Amino acid sequence: MRPQRRVWCQEWLQRRERMGSSVTILHGLQEENETLFRNYVRMDINSFYALVSKVESYIQRQETNMRQGITPAARVEATLAYLATGCCYTSLQYSTRRISKQSLSIIIPETYETLKDDYMKVPTTPEVWMCVAQGFFTRWNFPNCLGAIDRKHISIRPPQDSGSYFFNYSHYLSYDVRELRPPVLTTTSSRCLL
Length: 194
Hints:
mainly alpha; two-stranded antiparallel sheet; 2 domains
């Protein structure tokens, strides 16, 4: 039988409305330094809030008498941080977001599913692939190139009996994640990626 919960939500997580990064860091950087804001969320202020407003109706949750919901801006911020850094949910909950790892495990996949169709498309027609190849040739002087592979090692706990399969050259256990990138990252995927 499962032990009964002692608290509904831990006290340090309840201070998200006053001390979470969406309140402190995002608003502080927005008011003081747009360059640091861009570095933090990897897009400018207008693009970030345009992205939030486009997906807000899909990821907004109802406020209740028990607690306030996590704002769409905080949901998008957490998802972008996860996609950009590859940090685990436990690390993200402590890195000033003040969203529990259990909530993050629901929020990040939901928000990603909402974003992926419009912002993370893969070309499907030969014309779009040719446009991508032209972009690599024009910008980087690489003919016949369709993508650049970016790589990141994500720390893991290895499966049982995996031996040294996940041990890497940096002397820790990791999984090697690779991503295919266009010549230039754009905010709209319907245009040619030039």
